[in-house]
């Protein structure tokens, strides 16, 4: 009887163990919304390695590029909310639903913020052989014909940086979207476009003699590029555009699992803040837990929604969207 009683009690105890007890005990997948080799990958790889050590389970990176990050986000939105599938979110996460009716998610309510990871200001580049040597040159050229400026895709931060520049400098700009930052930068290097907005990680192409940096969309110059002026110094105000990186989980993921993930991320970021490779690419490691990250997302939505309204950006869903592009935009 005692033995039978013991098994009854033990079974009862096991049955009331919280679902998050023992988490994690299997591999975690981080879905990356852009191709390998770009700035998202520069952040994803050390993050994955660090979390693998901190959590004691394998962490796998799964690349699902396309549609300005929306393919990856939809995949994770449909995933089980057990804390084993996460997504590396970039600033386009907050922008996508503002400019595309097909985004299919609400940035505030459809995901669980885990942690903000880092920020990285955008820089305006031209090819090293371009006749354009300054922002003033670009503005002057735009008075005679529209200048072509590449972005990493519709609805990305680089896309809205182009719109902001067009508005702030009262210049005509033709937006040329690509499927990722690597392709957009390559277009500027080859001269297929007049300029490109990209992250500070592309300053490595300036050092190698392939690009020229015209201005940084930051309030101060970067230590890794002290010779590159801010837009304010170059004569264009209101040009502050920062890309950011964070981790999200599917809606409904247990709070305890979110907190455990955030604690591990915070531990990893403590080490990454000393990572000379990341700092050399212009990343500024910034941790913000679930509540603060959610507040930050709301701030991003408020800021970019004003620009979208001012520029009258309307999504035109086309066959291009089915091929992995978020759509064309009309004014």
UniProtKB/TrEMBL annotation:
Belongs to the UPF0065 (bug) family. SUPFAM superfamilies: Periplasmic binding protein-like II (SSF53850). It comes from the Bacteria. This is Extra-cytoplasmic solute receptor.
